[in-house]
Specification:
Blueprint lengths: L1 H22 L86 H4 L12 H14 L1 H4 L8 H4 L1 E3 L2 E3 L18 H10 L13 H15 L1
The structure holds heme C.
């Protein structure tokens, strides 16, 4: 009994040693022997790998694919050269889901930015206004105040449980004369890149949301 156990332990150690040695031939495109290979080989298409042999990984195939390919095959027969990702046509720029081009003007381009037309400029759409209002309440009210008068709680300071929190100085009164004539493009750019004491909100809000708020600010100013 004891011998049998020692024997199986030895066999086990030998097998592990063989597996370790076999995995040593890894290099280049060869990953060597993989432990639990299903963990490394994605069922979904992978953009950066190309395994064109339909029989690759047939020894462990666990899913029945319609075209009968084996587990590791991950090429896309519908695309040229069986690529998973198509190369975009040259000189094209991709648009986002809202069909907008990327906004790449740097922070110091406020003058040019203010000439850019909003996709919503001049629109009188109740839903657009409601969305702009909701976004303004989320991202701007605490500083600029519900009416844009620069009297949000952050701007005036608050006392919570007897502890005074001092005011964030210099918040703009968007209804003031200085801001009467700013364009939606100007507001969009300030939200995107920030200006002076106001930090950028470009990473928090999508392009579309920023234009909606800019549109709402113009309505608020009236
Ligand atoms: C943390 C407080 C704070 C938040 C939040 C904030 N602002 Fe401001 N905002 C400021 C301050 C402070 C200024 C004055 C900047 C300066 O001139 O130094 C300012 C200035 C502005 C200006 C005038 C820019 C100019 O040309 O001088 C606009 C327009 C504006 N904010 C719009 C917004 C909108 C829209 C939002 C919401 C997306 C927003 N702000 C959120 C603090 C804030």
């Amino acid at each position: 009994m004891k011998n049998a156990m020692r024997y199986s332990v030895n066999v086990f150690i030998a097998l592990v040693a063989v597996a370790l040695l076999a995995s040593c031939k890894a290099g280049g495109d060869n990953p060597g022997l993989e432990y639990a290979p299903n963990m490394y080989h994605s069922v979904a298409y992978e953009p950066y790998t190309q395994i064109t042999n339909p029989d690759a990984g047939s020894w462990l195939t666990s899913i029945e694919y319609e075209d009968g390919h084996a587990e590791f095959y991950n090429s896309n027969a519908l695309n040229p050269h069986r690529m998973n990702m198509r190369t975009p046509p040259s000189n094209t720029v991709s648009r986002n889901k809202a069909n907008m081009l990327p906004y790449r003007l740097p922070k110091d381009s406020l003058e040019i930015a203010s000439q850019i037309k909003s996709p919503f400029e001049g629109a009188e759409d109740a839903q657009l206004l409601a969305e702009g209002k909701a976004l303004y309440a989320m991202y701007c009210t605490h500083c600029h105040g519900a009416k844009g008068e620069g009297d949000g709680k952050v701007a005036t300071g608050v006392t919570i449980d007897g502890v005074e929190h001092s005011a964030y100085a210099g918040v703009a009164n968007l209804k003031g004369d200085a801001y009467k004539d700013i364009t939606e493009g100007h507001i969009f750019h300030v939200i995107t890149a920030g200006k002076g004491l106001m930090a950028s909100h470009g990473s928090q809000m999508s392009q579309e949301e920023r234009w909606k708020v800019a549109h709402y600010v113009k309505v608020l100013q009236k």
